[in-house]
Amino acid sequence: MPPRTSIEEFRELLKSSNRVLALCGAGLSAASGLPTFRGAGGLWRNHEPTSLATPTAFKRDPALVWLFYAWRRHMALKANPNRGHYALAELAKKKDDFLCLTQNVDGLSPRAGHPEAKLKLLHGSILDNKCFNDNCDYIDRNNLSDPVCPALAPAAEDYPPGQTIPLLDPYVPAPSIKVEDLLHCPQCKTGLLRPGVVWFNEPLDKQMLADIDNWILQGPIDIMLVVGTAAVVFPAAGYTQQAIDQGAIVAVVNPDPESGEGLIDEDFFFQGDASELLPKLFEGVIGKMDEHGKIL
Length: 296
Ligand code: OAD
Prior knowledge:
- The active site is at 123 (proton acceptor).
- Keywords: Metal-binding, NAD, Transferase, Zinc.
- Helix content is 28%, strand content 14%.
- It is α/β, with parallel strands linked by helices.
- The protein binds 2'-O-acetyl adenosine-5-diphosphoribose (OAD).
């Protein structure tokens, strides 16, 4: 039997639920104009985005990795939270025992007013800068400068719609940036600063993981919401199974029909855009939302 698709049935379930866990991914921010990692977003210049998101890539070419992140950062700062972010933030305010785990580093959930205690930034924040030196713990949180430093100005330039952005054109040589002009650590004075995101081959924050495990193990979970994620990166992708083990009914929100594979008949699959679907799905708890994300 395929999973359920009835919005009404989901609303009833959500109203009567106490413990709700959400796992979000890049698809949540798609309607804000930010590219996802896999699929449509494609290559950045001629690089696979995931090949730039590693400590090895940063060691090899810190200027190239910074250009990539400075551009993503510029996009994130220019973007606005969408109705999906606002709906989740509102649900967090209404449900005492709701926890949202996001893989997104774009800062849009915090900017939508999602209560901090109910939001775990699994992969860090692109607005934080931290020292690349293993033995230095310097971190500059929520740095909103754009460009992040003068040398990275080419990644923060806007062009008229329709015009190819030179930085994104692999046939236009990348701006040459000297390593000494990148941000350096004011604490240890030796390390380069790097984006405060989790890269491949890096562990997630231990305390955060322990806090999430504690929350999960506190008791049965009623609903596991899986929003806009390909759910292929671990440990994030593993939380769905952990919630199922705690009794959760899974509800997937994603335009890709393949993301509903593996769901059983008591689960839900809502095929479509998270910014449209989440306000509808949560309406019984958060009320009606206008097109700007305000509750009416
Ligand atoms: P992906 O790019 O892998 O997947 C995005 C998902 O969003 C896909 O399943 C799309 O079908 C779905 N999607 C697209 N548009 C959507 C919309 N409007 N509404 C809802 N869903 C939509 O992104 P993530 O799963 O977030 O990690 O990727 C996980 C991690 O892989 C990222 O955090 C990043 C990356 O490498 C690190 O950098 C460590």
